[in-house]
Amino acid sequence: MIRQGTKGSINAYYKNKLIVSRPINKIKTEEFYYQRRDFLIRDGLEQQWSLKKQISLYLPVLKNIRYNKLKKNPTSDEWDSILYGYLILEKLRVIPEDHRNGILIMGPKTISHVRRNR
To answer: Do the Cβ atoms of 11 and 2 come closer than 8 Å?
Structure first.
């Protein structure tokens, strides 16, 4: 399901499947998500988490979502974490950006008003 904010949505696809969709609004902009990704990578490295360890943390989460192996419905914060994990794996080139994987950023939905003759 696509989650849309006032400015649109950011959607992550993994192996031709929509993994996560998060809203874009005034607070959580596209840049916000990318800055948060970079912060999480740096914070992990400062806490002595190697890049390999960070990869081993995020990759199984994506695979579980890909095959619907969740035990409960994730909260909004958990969906954000899933998106950050995807962005981290993409930055570290674990997930290639190709025709099957990638980020799709969509603008807000426009509502057209249709006149009906009665």
So the answer is: yes
Cβ neighbors of 36 (< 8 A, separation 6 or more) are 84
This prediction's pTM? 0.84
Radius of gyration of the chain (CA): 16
Burial (CB count <10 Å: 0-12, 13-18, 19+), residue 86: buried
Q: Give residue 110's pLDDT.
A: 74
**Does residue 55 contact residue 94 with C-beta atoms inside 8 Å?**
yes
Closest-CA residue to 25 (of 70, 73, 87, 76): 76
pLDDT, tens only, 90-112: 999 999 988 899 999 998 877 66
